[in-house]
Amino acid sequence: MAKLKLAVYWGAACGGCDVSILDLHEKILKIGELADIVLWPLAADPKYSDIEAMEDKTIDLCLFNGAVRNSENLEIAELLRRKSKILVSLGSCACFGGIPGLGNLFNKKEIFNSVYLDREFNANEEQIVPKAKVTVPEGELTLPEFYNTVSSLEQVVDVDYFIPGCPPPPDLLWKAIEAIVSGNLPPKGSVIAGDKALCHECPRKREGRKVKEFKRLVDVILDEEICILEQGVVCNGPATRGGCGARCVRANIPCRGCFGPIEDALDQGTQLLSAIASTIDSDNPEEIKKITDQLADPAGTFYRFSLPVSMLKRRKEEGEE
Ligand code: SF4
Ligand code: SF4
Predict the structure, then answer these.
(1) Which of 257, 276, 288, 291 sits at a 20 to 30 Å CA gap from 179?
(2) How confident is the model at residue 267 (pLDDT cuts 50, 70, 90)?
(3) Are 238 and 197 a contacting pair, CB within 8 Å?
């Protein structure tokens, strides 16, 4: 059997999705038997020009992880879409924008100010921020253009399959690779994960307890048997797609929501808000306000992984309709 051609790319990402490919352990050898790697910046050295020189649809499978934050991410997303038969959005950043997507709470200017200018210990006396083009005596230097808005992969190109997770569990990744290799493909657009909320696969007891206060994880010792949300610590399970095996809640850590919204849910954040509201033990507006004021970083909690694909998408700019 002819070997498949495999490409792996990272856009705006931390590298964890690449590590989850390495976490396939000895199955990596199997991948080596089945496929030739034509692009994988972490592990191999082919150049973009090698990909550009290929006929369209030559790559059998492309695993694209990371969000689209800059012009290089967009250019390579478009290139790999053209060259690939199957394009998989791998991990929460590619699927929903992920943690980099929280940058949509700010704009480019604010981010550059915070990173390069307004620092307590700032060696940047000339107040230089990255520019897409700079002319130096030797010629013109270029950098990718940093966009104002972070997008998911599907917001810029057509995607065939989605494997969520921060990082995606290796067993789901292997399931997808096996399906592709065997030609036993799920319908286009499938999310290789569960189709119900994480609470359905969580082993903890739910007793319908209501709460009078919300606490941070660092301030409590959680009972390992009882629903975390019912102990007054925010757990994103009710608004998050299952399929990970409830790996965080089994380790006594609340779900942070990395599998993204549940099938057909419009917005993970509002769904979580509704689940949390129904947990509060009060009808008194003033008391409810006091309780909800205890929720630290609401935007980062409700939309930690999914802001770019939410109904909000990004913070509105001044003067924007
Ligand atoms: S809210 Fe969290 S801890 Fe409670 S049942 Fe759902 S996933 Fe489990
Ligand atoms: S429990 Fe939640 S945060 Fe943890 S891996 Fe599963 S979906 Fe992601």
Answers:
(1) 257
(2) very high
(3) yes
The answer, yes or no, to whether any atom of ligand 1 lies below 6 A from the CB of 197, is: no
Average pLDDT, the chain: 94
- Please tell me whether residues 161 and 142 are part of one structural domain: no
Cross-strand bridge partners of residue 2: none
Give the atom of ligand 2 at the shortest distance from the alpha carbon of 166.
8
Whole-model pTM?
Answer: 0.94
Phi-psi region of 119 (alpha: psi -120 to 50; beta: other; left: phi over 0): beta
What confidence score (pLDDT) does residue 271 get? 96
Distance from the CA of 237 to the center of ligand 2, in angstroms? 8
Query: Residue 110: pLDDT above 90?
Result: yes
Ligand 1 in contact with 169 (CB < 6 A)?
no
Q: How confident is the model at residue 305 (pLDDT cuts 50, 70, 90)?
A: very high
Does 321 have pLDDT greater than 70? no
For ligand 1, atom 4, the nearest C-alpha belongs to 227
225 with 162, same domain?
A: no
| Alpha-carbon span 250 to 48, nearest angstrom | 42
Query: Which pair of structure tokens corresponds to residue 260?
Result: 């993204």
Return the residue matching tokens 């700032």: 122
> Is 80 exceeded by the pLDDT of residue 317?
no
Give the nearest ligand 1 atom to 206 CA. Answer: 5
User: Per the structure block, which two tokens stand in for 303?
Assistant: 């939309």
Is 316 part of any domain?
A: no
**Backbone conformation region of residue 204, classed left if phi is above 0, alpha if psi is from -120 to 50, else beta:** beta
119, 175: one domain: no
Tell me the CA–centroid distance for residue 250 and ligand 2, in Å: 10
- 273 inside domain: yes
